[in-house]
Amino acid sequence: MMLTLRPARPADLGAVEALLAAADLPRQGVADHLPYFLVAEREGALVAAAGLELYGTSALLRSVVVNENQKGKGVGAELVQRLVERAGADGLEALFLLTTTAADYFPRFGFVRIDRAALPPELHASEELRGACPASAVVMRRLMARQP
Predict the structure, then answer these.
(1) Could you tell me the keywords of this UniProt record (predicted)?
(2) Sign of CA dihedral 147, 109, 75, 51
């Protein structure tokens, strides 16, 4: 059963939103940022997704979701790693995320907890920061290495 990671396509929107709904994660804004999402597909079915919302020299990592029967197989980690690599290749300076349940998961990718007040102002355009994600969510940041 081969797993395929690929960029999301417009036809994937419903499946991505269904994965998010099943995991009780926000769906607001996904359609607007779908071109910056990656999905994992197994036997023709989407089993995981993750995306970026780009804001100037920063991005918000969002919607990291893995189907319940695929958890623990490294699918989410592979999606996150690829998005971190993409952010670096695109010259972004920092990645941010909000989480209510996975603050212990993201340090392995270089994310550290920060105060919500330290978020760049441009990120406040995100649906996630305008109420889709609760104010109690942990805020994390990963500074990207400067490219020579």
Answers:
(1) Acyltransferase, Transferase
(2) negative
Distance in angstroms (rounded) separating the CA atoms of residues 73 and 140: 24
Question: What's the pLDDT at 22?
Answer: 93
Q: Is the dihedral of CA 60, 81, 24, 138 positive or negative?
A: negative
Domains of the chain: 3-143 (3.40.630.30)
